[in-house]
Structures are given as structure tokens and as C-alpha cells.
Write a structure and sequence with these properties.
Blueprint: H1 7-26, H2 34-47, H3 53-71, H4 75-93, H5 104-118, H6 127-150, H7 152-163, H8 168-181, H9 186-189, H10 193-203, H11 209-224, H12 230-244, H13 248-252, H14 254-260, H15 273-293, H16 298-301, H17 304-307, H18 318-334, H19 340-345, H20 352-362, H21 372-382, H22 389-398
Helix pairs in contact: 1-2, 1-3, 2-4, 3-4, 3-5, 4-6, 5-6, 5-8, 6-7, 7-8, 8-11, 11-15, 12-15, 15-18, 18-21, 20-21
Length: 399
């Protein structure tokens, strides 16, 4: 007897459920009517835990292609199909008492189909679609997570290989999926840390706006889990600073946009000024998160950020960089750590005189974006002990 039912009644119910499952699978999922197919898939997704594993295994070759096809439809349909696919994979791969019903090689076609869908651009204008699109994205990531729990190393290598492909949608999807899964599969993926860092380094000069956005978000997640250190970490920080330096003038200069961001003509129509502005915002927020919330990044950021104040190309990012430096200085001084030691130990640091002159020149525009003048004055106050005494006396007398 199960679930309070006598065995005879349980057998009747079980037989009825099996018959309904087979009817939905063999008849209604093949309907020409989209609504009928979708309703059938939705019902099957809720029934996968009620049928025998042998029946489920025999159904996989028919039901998976149908679900994948529906995942490619509009957001309303895709969400329902992705949710059902998540339930199906969960029932097929994560049984406590039996091995997975699918080998990883059999799952490859599923993952290859889903990966570009992760990178689908969600309209920013229609709020109802934003909500549904995010729900669909989460269901797709649940599918990858279930696969990762069953085959962690295989999935990691699959995603890394897709990052080396030439297809933008696959690269963006793979980067987004790694960002989503890294905190959840941290222990299983630890041995792949070096490979992941090398992949990220190889993509830092990509021209695709979508890839740059995905990289910026992934860099913050990697840093928060101590995946970045040394020179590779400095390259990642410089990537964030470079895109934080996008100016409002850049956004209004079509020639600059085409030369810097639209070099891949196949994706030109997908790129917008709003997207480029969003990239800048993501990188600025990422830098502040590194400086404020991740203590381990202090060894990378200080005094490296001082180098990034000098280059002309990074002028647009100086306000954000100064915010980060202020936070680092505040933390170091609260711990009674001197600022001199690391600054003087590096041969690549700008001289105190050059740093002072650069910051002083940038004060010419007090109304610049990001409260530039305020951020510069604040950071100069914290860095005062680095400057020669005669400059400090001049500052006190004249300013």
C-alpha cells in the first residue's frame, strides 16, 4: 500500500496515470495546434515523477525534441516549455537510487540548443516581457544546473569549449551560464580554475557588446570566489576601467561607436546606445563591488588603480576609480596599514608628482559626470601623505 491507498487501488491509479502519460506523449504532443502541444508538454512536465523510470526513459527521445522546439518560441511559450524541461531533466538525472537515464553525450544536443537561448535579448520596453523573460532565463539555468549536478566536469568542459567558438550567442550563453553556476558548483569546478581564467583573458579584446557585457558580470563573480589573482586579475580590472571610461560624448558619436563597438557588422542591429550605456553602468558597479565587498581584491587593486588614473583613454573612469581608491585607503588607514609601502615597492607606479598633476588638471570640470571634482578632492585628501612635502604645503596655502 502506498500513499494510504490499498495496493489494488494504487495499481489502478498507477495504470491510469501511465495511460494518460502515453496518450499525451504519443497523440497530443504531435498536434498541429500550438496551444494543444504546449498544454500537453506542461502536463507531461508535471507527471514525470509519477511514471516508472522505464516508461520515462522510453519517452525521452520523443518528448525532449518537442520541449526544445517550444523553448524557441515566444516568451510565454518558452517559459512553460523550459519549466517542463527542467522537471524532466531533474527526474531523469537526479534519482537518489538509480543512475541517470541520459549519458552526457546524449544531453549535448539539449545543451547546444539551450545555450543560445540563454543569451536572448529581453526587451526593455515591455515590462510584462521582462518578468517572463527573466523567469524563462532562470528555468533554462535550472536545466544547466541539474545537468551540472549529474555531470559537473563534463558540463564545465562543454561550456569552456563553447567560449572558444566563433558564435556570439553561444559564447554569451556559455559565459552567462558559468556566471550562474560557478557559486553553485564551486567545489566541483575548482580544478578548472586555470582553464576558466585563460578563457576570460582570451576574450578581453572581443568586439561584441554582448560578450563584453557577459564578461564584465562574470569577472565580478570570479573575483568574489577568489578566481582572480596576479596579472590576470589586473587585466580583468583594466577591462572594467576601460568600459567605465565610456563618455557621454562617445555615446553620441556614431563614428566612434562604429569603430569601437560595431566592428562585427552581423550584430550591428542588436547593439544600441542604451546597451552601451548599460555596459558602462555594469562595469562601474563591478569596480565598486570589487573595492567595497571583496577584501581579497585589495591586493590586486592597491596600488594598481593608481596607474589607471594617468592614461588619457581612461579619463571617463577617473571618478569611479577615485571612489574605489578612497574606499581602499579608508580601509587601510582604519587598519593602521601605511600607504607608502606598496606604492614605493612598484616600479610601474606613476610618480607622486605626476599623479598630483593629473588629478589637479582634472579638477577643471567640477560638473563632470560622477561628481568627478568631489571624488578627486576626497582621494587627494587620503593620498596626501604620498605627495612631496612642498606640494602638500602648496596645497594648504593655495587651496
Amino acid at each position: 500500500m502506498e500513499a494510504g491507498l490499498p495496493s489494488a487501488q494504487y495499481s489502478i491509479v498507477r495504470s491510469f496515470m501511465n495511460s494518460v502519460f502515453e496518450l499525451l506523449l504519443k497523440v497530443w504532443t504531435g498536434s498541429r495546434d500550438l496551444k494543444v502541444r504546449l498544454s500537453s508538454v506542461e502536463a507531461l512536465g508535471e507527471m514525470v515523477g509519477l511514471v516508472t523510470r522505464s516508461q520515462l526513459k522510453s519517452a525521452l527521445p520523443r518528448i525532449i525534441p518537442t520541449m526544445l522546439d517550444l523553448c524557441k518560441k515566444d516568451q510565454e511559450v518558452a517559459f512553460t516549455a523550459a519549466h517542463s524541461l527542467h522537471n524532466l531533466l531533474n527526474a531523469s538525472l537526479l534519482s537518489e537510487s538509480a543512475p541517470p537515464l541520459l549519458e552526457f553525450e546524449e544531453l549535448a544536443v539539449v545543451l547546444i540548443t539551450l545555450l543560445p537561448l540563454v543569451s536572448v535579448n529581453i526587451s526593455k520596453d515591455e515590462r510584462s516581457y521582462i518578468s517572463k523573460g527573466l523567469k524563462t532565463y532562470n528555468e533554462l539555468q535550472h536545466c544547466f544546473l541539474v545537468t551540472g549536478l549529474a555531470y559537473p566536469e563534463d558540463l564545465c568542459m562543454f561550456l569552456l569549449s563553447k567560449c572558444r567558438s566563433k558564435d556570439e550567442a553561444s559564447i554569451v550563453g556559455a559565459l552567462g551560464t558559468i556566471k550562474h553556476l560557478l557559486p553553485r558548483l564551486l567545489e566541483s569546478w575548482h580544478t578548472k580554475q586555470t582553464l576558466l581564467v585563460e578563457i576570460v583573458k582570451s576574450l578581453l579584446e572581443e568586439q561584441s557588446l554582448g560578450i563584453r557585457m557577459a564578461l564584465a558580470e562574470l569577472i565580478v563573480v570570479m573575483a568574489s570566489h577568489c578566481y582572480l589573482s596576479g596579472h590576470s586579475a589586473e587585466l580583468a580590472v583594466e577591462f572594467l576601467v576601460r568600459h567605465s571610461a565610456i563618455t557621454d560624448d562617445d555615446l553620441n558619436d556614431i563614428n566612434t561607436l562604429k569603430n569601437e563597438y560595431f566592428q562585427d557588422k552581423r550584430f550591428e542591429m542588436k547593439i544600441s546606445l542604451a546597451g552601451l550605456s548599460e555596459l558602462r553602468a555594469v562595469c562601474e558597479k563591478g569596480l565598486l563591488l570589487l573595492a567595497i565587498t571583496i577584501p581579497e581584491m585589495e591586493l590586486v587593486l592597491w596600488p594598481f588603480l593608481l596607474q589607471l588614473i594617468i592614461p588619457k583613454n581612461y579619463t571617463g573612469a577617473v571618478a569611479t576609480v577615485c571612489k574605489c581608491i578612497t574606499e581602499l585607503c579608508r580601509r587601510k588607514l582604519s587598519q593602521t596599514n601605511p600607504l607608502y609601502t606598496e606604492f614605493n615597492a612598484s616600479n610601474e607606479m606613476p610618480s607622486p608628482e605626476d599623479l598630483f598633476a593629473r588629478l589637479l588638471v582634472l579638477l577643471h570640470n567640477p560638473l563632470a559626470r560622477g561628481q568627478l571634482a568631489t571624488q578627486i578632492l576626497t582621494v587627494m585628501c587620503y593620498l596626501g601623505q604620498l605627495f612631496p612635502r612642498n606640494l602638500s604645503l602648496f596645497w594648504e596655502d593655495e587651496v
